[in-house]
Design goal:
SpdB, alpha+beta, 64 residues, 16% helix, elongated
């Protein structure tokens, strides 16, 4: 069975993707920011979309 897509309002800022989801258990809306660059591995959850966008704009990959 394929995985369900629980994220909506997906946005891309540089290599970082931001998605919004609603927790099934608590019903709260959270925003996840994830770097899509190879071997970076950075991701974080935020309570507001503005905070996730700020993190995406200021994220710098440490891969060289």
């Amino acid at each position: 069975m394929p995985a369900r897509d629980f994220f909506h309002s997906v946005e891309r800022i540089g290599p970082v993707q931001i998605g919004t989801t609603r927790s099934r258990r608590t019903g709260q809306t959270t925003h996840a920011a994830v770097c899509t660059s190879e071997r970076c591995g950075w991701s974080a959850d935020y309570g507001s979309r503005t905070a996730a966008q700020l993190a995406a704009r200021t994220h710098r990959c440490r891969i060289r």
